[in-house]
């Protein structure tokens, strides 16, 4: 059974996709960029601030679906520049301190709205 997850505490989708889909005890969170849902735009200009906002968006979606960061099994991190890897990683390790999920991280040519980072997440109950 498929369930659409949506919360106003995370940015609305900027295209034809859902914030997350839950199916058979697995939550698939769409890639989150650093839009502050309260104002509808990216406010932070640096990788640390943008990564913090991305994780707050992910947290809001996890919460809405009844999951926690402890349920996350896989993350994919997209960076506009691999030079930002260390800054992203400093924030990332605040949210995953033990039993960290599997992860891939790589640079891409560009991200939506000029963001520096996008993270998609899979969680399992």
Description:
With 125 residues, the chain is α+β, with helices and mostly antiparallel strands. The chain has one domain: 60s Ribosomal Protein L30, Chain: A (2-Layer Sandwich), CATH 3.30.1330. The protein is 24% helix and 33% strand. The strands form 2 sheets. The chain has a 6-stranded mixed β-sheet with strand order 1-2-3-8-6-7, covered by helices on one side. Strands 4-5 form a two-stranded antiparallel ribbon. Helix 1 packs parallel to helix 2 (85-95). It is globular.
CATH architecture: 2-Layer Sandwich
Q: Using only CA atoms, what is the Rg? A: 13 Å
The count of strands amounts to 8
Q: What is the 3D shape?
A: globular
DSSP summary: helix tally: 2
Query: What is the share of helical residues?
Result: 10-25%
Q: Numbering strands along the chain, what is their spatial order in the largest sheet? A: 1-2-3-8-6-7
Compute the number of structural domains. Answer: 1
Class by helix and strand content?
Answer: alpha+beta
Q: Can you tell me the CATH class?
A: Alpha Beta
